[in-house]
Amino acid sequence: MRNRFVSILLLVLVVLLGAQLVRPYLDRVFFAATEPRVVTPSGALADYEQTATKIFETVAPSVVQVVAQPPHNPFDVDPNATQSGTGFVWDAAGHIVTNDHVVSGEATIAVRFASGEIVPAQVVGEAPNYDLAVLRLNRSISLPPPITIGKSSDLKVGQAAFAIGNPFGLEQSLTTGVISALKRRLPTSGGREIADVIQTDAAINPGNSGGPLLDSSGRLIGVNTAIYSPSGANAGIGFAIPIDVVNRVVPELIRTGRVPTPGIGILAADETIATRLGVTGVIVAGVVPGSPAARAGLVGIDPAADAIGDVIIEANGEPVRRLSDLTDRLERAGPGATIDLTVMRDSNRRTVKVDVIDLAQR
């Protein structure tokens, strides 16, 4: 009886083992998909997906790739080296807006449209203080429509943000995220700071520079300009020049090729000095002789007495806590205007009227 049970058990084990060995062959014979599979109908896109796809379909044709080649130098290690960024159609006249650092100093510039058409272009205006440049196409083509303009003054942290560009040369890429912060300050190659810069976590990488940052209505709210990243790749912190600044600077570049540099003729002390001394405001380090600041009686640091002079704490009634606050007020006023500055000297507060001039024309 026992031997019979063992025999049956062995037989069952042999059958199971055999089934496992032949199963792959049976699956290929009976279950292999040798014909195209039936397509499952898609469901409706979520609202957020519909918004993103509509924005891309509407705006992407107006976003271009900007390729700039430096002047040929026979001693360059790589004379064919190029740099690329992003730009977008500004108006029906064929002006393209991009970052100044994408095209500055370059000899040959080409613009590639979403259609694949490549058009030579030239710089008609640069504003290093804002990292903005305007290009003009060298020949007429059928242009996609300019991107609609929004406002940056009423943006909210947390609202959706969409970036379209050419990261690492990969054309027509859409990334999404939110506005992470507002009123950031960003140094530029012009030696100044852009105030009220937009911070976003929408992925921005090298090649996105000069591309549009959009709101959920597809309106232009900023121009992507930089990333904060130790590795040089996206780390979730990108910056965009606010559209309120862009909409003021770009028309001036188209008209005159330059943007005035408003100032009053002071040299500001490094902000670390103010921080170390516990001073809130802009410490006047020096005053340019004959400048509006000198005529208004402002004085700078006295090295002999080891004492600070005037500290600017307000401009036109608005607080000035650092240099970018002052430059923002001066830019809003513009050359030719007169600005009211509230200054502190030896614990005494006073208000003086100072003319704003274009420092670039001195």
Describe this protein's structure:
The protein is α+β, with helices and mostly antiparallel strands. The protein folds into 3 domains: 57-137, Trypsin-like serine proteases (Thrombin, subunit H, Beta Barrel); 160-256, Thrombin, subunit H; 262-361, PDZ domain (Pdz3 Domain). It has helices spanning 2-30, 47-59, 100-103, 243-256, 271-277, 292-295, 323-333; strands spanning 63-69, 83-89, 95-98, 108-112, 118-127, 132-137, 160-165, 173-187, 193-200, 212-214, 220-227, 238-242, 262-263, 266-268, 282-287, 311-315, 318-319, 338-345, 348-355, 357-358. The model has no long low-confidence stretch (mean pLDDT 87).
Brief digest:
With 362 residues, this protein is an alpha+beta fold.
Secondary-structure map with pairings?
Elements: H1 2-30, H2 47-59, E1 63-69, E2 83-89, E3 95-98, H3 100-103, E4 108-112, E5 118-127, E6 132-137, E7 160-165, E8 173-187, E9 193-200, E10 212-214, E11 220-227, E12 238-242, H4 243-256, E13 262-263, E14 266-268, H5 271-277, E15 282-287, H6 292-295, E16 311-315, E17 318-319, H7 323-333, E18 338-345, E19 348-355, E20 357-358
Antiparallel strand pairs: 1-2, 1-4, 2-3, 3-6, 4-5, 5-6, 7-8, 7-10, 8-9, 9-12, 10-11, 11-12, 13-20, 14-15, 15-16, 16-17, 16-18, 18-19
Give the fraction of residues assigned to helices: 10-25%
Give me the count of strands: 20
CATH top level of the largest domain? Mainly Beta
Task: Write down the Rg.
Answer: 31 Å
Name the assembly state: single chain
Amino- and carboxy-terminal Cα gap: 116 Å
Beta-strand portion reads 25-35%
What is the mean pLDDT?
87
Number of domains: 3
Structural class, by secondary structure, is alpha+beta
